[in-house]
Design a protein that fits this description.
Number of strands of chain B: 2
Order of helices and strands of chain A: HHH
Shape of chain A: elongated
Distance between the termini of chain B: 22 Å
Strand order of the largest sheet of chain B: 1-2
Structural class of chain A: mainly alpha
Helix content of chain A: 55-70%
Number of domains of chain A: 1
Largest sheet of chain B: 2 strands, antiparallel
Keywords (chain A): Cell membrane, Membrane, Transmembrane, Transmembrane helix
Membrane topology (chain A): Multi-pass membrane protein
CATH class of chain A: Mainly Alpha
Radius of gyration of chain B: 22 Å
Largest sheet of chain A: none
Shape of chain B: globular
Pfam families (chain A): Oxidored_q2
CATH topology of chain A: Helix Hairpins
Helix content of chain B: over 70%
Strand content of chain B: under 5%
Number of domains of chain B: 1
Number of helices of chain A: 3
CATH architecture of chain A: Orthogonal Bundle
Oligomer: heterodimer
Subcellular location (chain A): Cell membrane
Protein name (chain A): Multiple resistance and pH homeostasis protein C
């Protein structure tokens, strides 16, 4: 099971890198979302996928899933949600002010003034 | 009081929350943020004394036994850096009164600064690797706000890139933590250190070590990963650049230092040689950048990159002199970079331009500014008895002791380039014939900006002259860095 997950996560990272290297801001933001999906799935997989019961205390349950990675993912999801929301609004503002969503056209250079 | 070490995190955090209730009342904003920062300064200096007399302070939330809860650890290195960052925030807020502009002050500027300080202090003090990630995000989100606040076109352009780089590096951080967790099965930094020592750092741990170097190197701007820094730091207003330049990269440097002295100490021949090579290349890149531009802000920004290289060179030696030098140099560099950005900001206000070629002859009208700048420039280059000297001397001594003769000479040579780059500002801006300056009515703030800058330079001079009083504290910090068992014993109470 872990091997299948590793391939899926690797595919997500590949797609994310491809999208982040593209020119449109929206494609870049989609790429960062895929990157965080990949990272979250990686935490889940790296914690081990062998637990059967959900990590809730109940009578007779012995083989629980590792609760720690789930807490980590929950934290990381909220954080990446906040950052993505900020990033989307920033992209919107930049589109309004600069009139373009092409990364080539918003390239800055260090000026001497 | 067992929770005392939380005060440097909690006071700025509480102050930021209070400030959010009345964003439009400028007097309230200014007074409350100053009171909060002064209280935090007092608390952090008291904490230094406590750590010095009582040893490493540890608190685990919720009274859980040690590896299971989140631990906050105040060793001397973290405490010194926390104190320095609070002092810098205090001066930056003071400097901001007359330089940041009322629109920004009314739009959550001070809460942004205080939340960034919360994140920075938390990152210094935490003893849990995932908690370090969370505090990184706290400081990064506040820095996104600060870098875009005001909404100028240039800021919008640069913020997009800044956020993108940091989102990618944060995802890498999560991935690296996940990999480390799958190998050692714990997140507590002291426990990780013990577990890695038990399994003797196999190849996978070294790989994770290099991944951590990439993650923190992106935050700290080391050689191949510094590409985002010059343009992102040039966009925001001066007080924000001062905060970023003094604090943000240093958090990355701290994280590299912590992981490379606590976790990855069993294959030094590979990991620390890599760090050594990268730090030398970082210095080279920074030197080229600092000489390449006539923009006063960019010269200092490239000097931030050089300083990161110098500090990491000291860390890479892994001997007492090198680490002691790195500790002296990182504190010095935080203070002096903030001071230099302040002074350069005043020059920009006076002349109305950041281009050196359009300035000249300021020394006749502004002698105090000129001589203060010269002292700060000499301090940056490391001329004794000023603040940069002792750190760099110890770093070079450590390098020679470890047998890295050529790279140590390279550090000394880089000091000349640093001196040349900042003296160029002095020569172009303060000597020569007088050129047009902004009329008096538009720069009424000159005196108000000069006072915090001069005081901060005075602190750096005191730091250089009083190195003898500071050495015992630095010694405490280095004792922990040089021997990880001091740290792990204090946390795990074995």
């Amino acid at each position: 099971m872990e091997v299948v997950m590793a391939f899926v996560i690797g595919f997500l990272f590949m797609a994310a890198v491809y999208l982040i290297l593209s020119k449109s801001i929206l494609r870049i933001i989609i790429g960062t979302s895929l990157l965080s999906h990949g990272a979250h799935l990686l935490i889940l997989t790296m914690g081990g996928l062998d637990g059967e019961a959900p990590p809730v205390l109940a009578d007779g349950v012995t083989n629980m899933a590792d609760p720690l990675p789930q807490a980590l993912i929950l934290t990381a999801i909220v954080i990446s949600f906040g950052v993505t929301a900020f990033f989307l609004v920033l992209a919107y503002r930049a589109y309004q002010e600069l009139g373009t969503d092409n990364m080539d056209e918003i390239r800055g250079k260090l000026s001497d003034d | 009081m067992i929770n005392f070490l939380l005060l440097p995190i909690l006071i700025p955090f509480a102050t930021a929350i209070i400030l959010m209730f009345a964003p439009k009342k400028i007097t309230f904003q200014r007074t409350v943020s100053m009171i909060g920062l002064i209280a935090a300064t007092v608390a952090s200096f008291t904490l230094i004394q406590r750590v010095h007399t009582l040893g490493i302070q540890v608190v685990t939330f919720g009274n859980w036994p040690e590896p299971f809860g989140i631990t906050i650890v105040a060793d001397m290195m973290a405490t010194i850096l926390v104190t320095t960052s609070i002092v810098i925030a205090l001066f930056t807020v003071w400097y901001s009164f007359r330089s940041i502009g009322i629109e920004r002050e009314q739009f959550f500027y001070y809460p942004g600064v205080l939340l960034m300080i919360t994140g920075v202090n938390g990152a210094f003090l935490t003893g849990d690797i995932f908690n370090l990630f969370v505090f990184f995000e706290v400081l990064l989100m506040a820095s996104y706000l600060l870098s875009v606040i005001g909404g100028e076109k240039k800021q919008l352009k640069e913020s997009i890139k800044y956020i993108l780089v940091n989102v990618v590096s944060s995802a890498l951080f999560v991935i690296t933590v996940a990999l480390l967790y799958s190998v050692v099965g714990t997140l507590n930094m002291a426990d990780i250190s013990v577990k890695i020592a038990e399994i003797g750092q196999p190849g996978i741990i070294t790989t994770i070590g290099v991944l951590f170097l990439i993650v923190f190197g992106l935050k700290a701007a080391i050689f191949p990963l510094f590409f985002w820094l010059p343009s992102s730091y040039a966009a925001p207003p001066i007080p924000v650049i001062a905060l970023f330049g003094a604090l943000l990269t240093k958090v990355g440097v701290y994280a590299i230092t912590r992981t490379y002295t606590l976790f990855f100490v069993h294959d030094i021949a590979f990991t620390h040689t890599l760090l050594l090579v990268l730090s030398c290349l970082t210095i080279l890149a920074g030197c080229i950048g600092a000489l390449s531009t006539f923009n006063v802000k960019n010269i200092i920004i490239y000097n931030v990159v050089i300083a990161v290289g110098v500090i990491l060179f000291g860390v890479a030696q892994m001997n007492e002199e090198g680490l002691m030098g790195a500790m002296f140099y990182i504190t010095h560099d935080m203070l002096i970079k903030a001071a230099l950005f302040f002074l350069v900001g005043i020059i920009v206000v006076i002349t109305g331009t950041a281009n050196l070629k359009k300035m000249g002859g300021l020394i006749k009208t502004f002698p105090v500014l000129g001589w203060t700048y010269l002292i700060a420039a000499f301090g940056l280059a490391g001329i004794p008895p000023l603040s940069g000297f002792i750190g760099k001397m110890l770093i070079v001594k450590g390098g020679l002791e470890a047998g890295n003769i050529w790279s140590s000479l390279w550090i000394l040579l880089s000091s000349l380039v640093v001196l040349l780059s900042v003296i160029r500002i002095f020569i172009y801006a303060f000597w020569g014939e007088e050129k047009t300056i902004v009329p008096l009515a538009e720069r009424k703030s000159y005196k108000a900006l000069l006072i915090p800058s001069v005081l901060l330079v005075a602190i750096t001079v005191f730091y250089g002259v009083g190195a003898e009083w500071i050495t015992p504290y630095m010694q405490d910090a280095v004792d922990v860095l040089i021997d990880p068992s001091v740290y792990t014993d204090a946390v795990l109470k074995e």
